[in-house]
């Protein structure tokens, strides 16, 4: 298998575009998640297939079950939550009954994730470069010096302007957008096939949000990475995703190709999400039919 | 309401000219605002857009007299207030000419006062008799979609959306000429955000001028007559909301418009954003 840096150097057409293997890297089938303590089902059946270089978006407000679904795929459901129905296949293997050791070997190298608050995933008293290098040393059994070199390479791959300088900086010296890039670098360090971005741009300024979304699109095109983008904002998901799932109170109320969902929404809730953008958003001014 | 954005309106409610604001000790002074000029007509809503570090909150705080300008003038309702000391500012606020709403309503509401007392207080400070104040508070409630049953509750017993509507009511119950809103909907979920934006739109009919400060071009676009874009402490573009969004002139405004998540974005936007970033960083 080629390393990420090799993949980053090959032109777009050679990897993702020309040979798109149809086998899904993540396959979620009618997954149900229950809270054992409360004795009730929270997520009532979510299904999607994700092939390399493709992106699935999950939209919903807080409490809709979108984060629980992601956590199930990552094998990190909170205590007393469990998958009580359906199945999740990662790279062709059913995750049910995976041991903690099996999860450890899959996380990072097959599936990885970034979340909303990047600062809370970094140690404030260790330089950023050392933290990215640690992932490489543990996951790829690389030596100190090689890991260090790869860390700089990765920070450059996520478009940090001066990767060598950033390596020697502490988290408090970086802005929110830079921290999220560092986290993305760490998340892709072991060459995962699936990256989950759960509200990864929610806390950022819009121009920085767009930078991060563009970076994810760029990584997807250059390396064939498959993405799951989770957001409360339908427009964020619409920018990046081939397929959208609209979740409400644990129920998938709408699912389909992004353009289909945007132009012919069937569920009332989806129509509400779209109307909000059309009345109070830039879409009011930018809609194509208003171009005169 | 329609106001011609291209004509300078007579007798503005707020007129800021050549405003400079600096922070920090003399030797390490940092410029927060530079040469900011903006004028707002009665009944007009101006959206001030800026991201982290743009100086937008400094602008709000300077207009409210909480931060002192190092140069320039601020004229509120015909009064030059730039050189006012704390006492004259207090007197001006007491008259209720300028009011404000912050992002976090818990900052503008006293946690130990019932909603009724919180809403009546600015009127009582103005010398309105207690019975009349109570009547005006009750009459105002429907305009912010709040029921009378909330009047004897404390701010902590309300939802975030209800609290922000109380803060809006408190700012507007004295019928001020000018209200400064600093990120008024940023902490709210989408349903509450839309509701507060609708309320603000309706309140404009009273002739109150609103300065709506936000990082979110989308929520401002739905309410503002004009949009002013603040970038690194300077106003780089001011114009009618539709013009600024449809035909942004400054590269930063173009980047802002192309970066805002929309339902109908084109793949071409990505290349354009990249070009604009390079331009702005060079």
Q: Termini distance of chain A?
A: 52 Å
Number of domains of chain B: 3
User: CATH homologous superfamily of chain A?
Assistant: P-loop containing nucleotide triphosphate hydrolases
CATH class of the largest domain in chain B: Alpha Beta
Explain what this protein looks like in three dimensions:
The complex is a heterodimer of chains A (292) and B (282). In chain A, the strands form two sheets. In chain A, strands 6-7-8-3-9-10 form a six-stranded mixed sheet, with helices on both faces. In chain A, a hairpin with a 2-residue loop joins strand 4 and strand 5 (93-94). Helix content of chain A is 41%, strand content 23%. Chain A contains 13 helices and ten strands. By secondary structure, chain A is an alpha/beta fold. Chain A has one domain (4-117, 196-290): P-loop containing nucleotide triphosphate hydrolases (Rossmann fold), CATH 3.40.50.300. Chain A is globular. Chain A starts with a helix and ends in a 6-residue tail after the last helix. The model of chain A has no long low-confidence stretch (mean pLDDT 88). Chain A has helices at residues 4-9, 12-17, 66-74, 100-106, 128-140, 144-157, 163-167, 176-187, 206-223, 234-240, 258-263, 268-279, 283-286; strands at residues 26-35, 40-50, 55-59, 81-90, 93-94, 111-114, 194-198, 226-231, 243-248, 251-257. Chain B is an alpha/beta fold and 282 residues long. Chain B has three domains: 9-96 and 199-245, Rossmann fold, CATH 3.40.50.300; 98-175, no CATH class; 248-282, no CATH class. Chain B is 37% helix and 22% strand. Chain B is built from eleven helices and ten strands. Chain B has helices at residues 56-63, 86-94, 105-108, 115-125, 130-140, 160-172, 190-203, 217-221, 241-246, 251-259, 268-281, and strands at 14-23, 30-40, 45-49, 71-76, 79-80, 98-101, 178-182, 209-214, 226-231, 234-240. In chain B, strands 6-7-8-3-9-10 form a six-stranded mixed sheet, sandwiched between helices. A four-stranded antiparallel sheet of chain B has the order 2-1-4-5, with helices on one face. The interface between A and B is medium-sized, with 36 and 34 residues.
């Amino acid at each position: 298998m080629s390393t990420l840096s090799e993949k980053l150097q090959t032109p777009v057409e050679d990897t993702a575009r020309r040979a798109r293997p149809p086998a899904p890297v993540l396959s979620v089938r009618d997954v149900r998640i229950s809270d054992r303590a409360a004795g009730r089902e929270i997520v009532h059946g979510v299904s999607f297939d994700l092939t390399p270089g493709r992106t699935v978006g999950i939209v919903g407000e807080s409490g809709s079950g979108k984060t629980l679904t992601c956590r199930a795929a990552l094998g990190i459901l909170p205590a007393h939550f469990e998958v009580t129905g359906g199945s999740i296949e990662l790279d062709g293997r059913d995750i049910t009954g995976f041991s903690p050791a099996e999860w450890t070997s899959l996380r990072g190298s097959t599936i990885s994730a970034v979340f909303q608050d990047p600062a809370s995933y970094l140690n404030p008293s260790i330089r950023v470069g050392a933290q990215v290098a640690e992932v490489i040393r543990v996951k790829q059994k690389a030596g100190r010096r090689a890991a260090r070199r790869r860390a700089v390479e990765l920070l450059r791959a996520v478009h940090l302007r001066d990767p060598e300088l950033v390596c020697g900086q502490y988290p408090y010296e970086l802005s929110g957008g830079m921290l999220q890039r560092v986290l993305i670098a760490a998340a892709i360090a072991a060459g995962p096939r699936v990256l989950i971005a759960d509200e990864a741009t929610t806390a950022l300024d819009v121009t920085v949000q767009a930078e991060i979304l563009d970076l994810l699109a760029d990584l997807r095109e250059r390396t064939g990475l498959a993405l799951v983008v989770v957001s409360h904002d339908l427009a964020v998901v619409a920018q990046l995703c081939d397929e959208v799932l609209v979740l409400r109170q644990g129920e998938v109320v709408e699912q389909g190709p992004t353009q289909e969902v945007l132009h012919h929404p069937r569920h009332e809730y989806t129509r509400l999400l779209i109307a909000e953008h059309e009345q109070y958003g830039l879409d009011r001014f930018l809609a194509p039919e208003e171009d005169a | 309401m329609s106001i011609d954005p291209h004509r300078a309106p007579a007798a503005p409610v707020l007129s800021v000219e050549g405003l400079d604001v600096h922070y920090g000790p003399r030797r390490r002074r940092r410029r927060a605002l530079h040469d900011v000029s903006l004028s707002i007509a009665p009944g007009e809503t101006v959206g001030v857009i800026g991201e982290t570090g743009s100086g937008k909150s400094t602008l709000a705080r300077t207009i409210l007299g909480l931060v002192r300008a190092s140069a320039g003038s601020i004229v509120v309702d015909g009064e030059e207030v730039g050189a006012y000391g704390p006492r004259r500012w207090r007197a001006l606020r007491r008259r209720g000419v300028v009011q404000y709403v912050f992002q976090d309503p818990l900052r503008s509401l006293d946690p130990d006062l019932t909603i009724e007392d919180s809403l009546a207080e600015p009127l009582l400070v103005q010398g309105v008799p207690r019975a009349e104040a109570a009547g005006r508070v009750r009459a105002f409630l429907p305009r912010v979609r709040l029921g009378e049953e909330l009047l004897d509750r404390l701010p902590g017993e309300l939802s975030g959306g209800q609290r922000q509507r109380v803060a809006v009511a408190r700012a507007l119950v004295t019928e001020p000429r000018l209200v400064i809103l600093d990120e008024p909907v940023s902490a709210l979920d989408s349903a509450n955000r839309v509701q507060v934006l609708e309320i603000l739109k309706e309140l404009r009919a009273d002739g109150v001028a609103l300065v709506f400060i936000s990082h979110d071009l989308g929520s401002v676009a739905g309410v503002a007559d004009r949009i002013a874009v603040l970038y690194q402490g300077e106003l780089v573009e001011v114009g009618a909301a539709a013009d600024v969004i449809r035909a942004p002139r400054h590269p930063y405004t173009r980047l802002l418009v192309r970066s805002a998540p929309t339902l109908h974005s084109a793949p071409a936007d990505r290349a354009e954003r990249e070009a604009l970033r390079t331009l702005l960083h060079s």
